[in-house]
Amino acid sequence: MSSHPPAAALLEGRTAVVTGGAQGIGFEIARSFVDAGARVVLGDLSLDAAQAAADELGGRDVARAVRCDVVDAGEVDALLAAAVDGFGSLDVLVNNAGITRDATMRTMTEDDFDQVISVHLKGTWNGTRKAAAIMREAKRGAIVNISSLSGKVGMVGQTNYSAAKAGIVGLTKAAAKEMAHHGVRVNAIQPGLIRSAMTEAMPQKAWDQKMAEIPMRRAGEVGEVASVALFLACDMSSYMTGTVLEVTGGRFM
């Protein structure tokens, strides 16, 4: 009977790339991967922030930083190459990079719309297709895409973000079907209200309104998203592909 390794060894000997890895959910995912035995490459628009994050995770032997704009396919190639060349393989990719440009449709500019769709959706497509090309050669790999509860229910002021995050779900399922027979799994996570620098800047009234919608009556912590990403990245989820896991405290179930 097969038994799973202890949590500390779930990603032993594996290399993971995390986009938007310098802070927030991305950084916490990278930390959980390192704790599970992985080596990580952090991609971020800010090389300084990514380097500081990599240093905090243990330096060059376990974590490296690469400046990466996920909208640029060439930069995504370079990011993934840093994993293969630096650590010998690409076993896991987490497409987490994202931005918000919230506004009602009446006030949202075309640029606000284009940028959000570009970073989230095209960025996730770039990461998924580039990683899949490498992973299929190894006949194994796990891709984890970070969607959002906004991609399930739609949020006022987020026609751009909700559309992008819903798009990531469709992309995940289509890619999962294409890659299944190559041994590559593609899954998505939809976080709800997670306590971070971004959400704590919210007006109190907006925060209270969201809290009222959560059966568990609290915001989630970044570590509670990271542990689900770890589950999807490791062999504990070996028979799961094309799934969407909600990490929401029961909000909008």
From TrEMBL:
Keyword list, A-Z: Oxidoreductase
UniProt entry tagged with the keyword Oxidoreductase: yes
Lineage: Bacteria, Bacillati, Actinomycetota, Actinomycetes, Mycobacteriales
SMART domains (UniProt xref): PKS_KR
EC code(s) of this entry: 1.1.1.100
Record's keyword annotation contains Oxidoreductase: yes
Listed name of the protein: 3-oxoacyl-ACP reductase FabG
Pfam families assigned to the protein according to its UniProt record, in alphabetical order: adh_short_C2
